[in-house]
Amino acid sequence: MVATHSIRVLGRDLQVKSVATPEHVAQVETLVNQKLAEAEGAVPGGDTQMVVILALMNLAESCLNAQKELAEERRICGERIVGLIERLDRQ
Description:
Layout: E1 3-9, E2 12-18, H1 22-42, H2 48-90
Antiparallel strand pairs: 1-2
């Protein structure tokens, strides 16, 4: 069920709709605010657009790394499954 959640990002109160639990929405809000705060510390002059771009780039990099790790784990699991099936077939 879609619910409306109140969040605060970049000093702005926002209403977002999501099927996620309130706890999950709060976790997303916290992560976004943490990444924005990290980026803000790296951007001289406080240019909001640059802060948001840097935060998005950092999040995208994390996402791509997680996707690569997941693909590698899937590959390893697939190889293990094939090996186990081969062992079962030999017995």
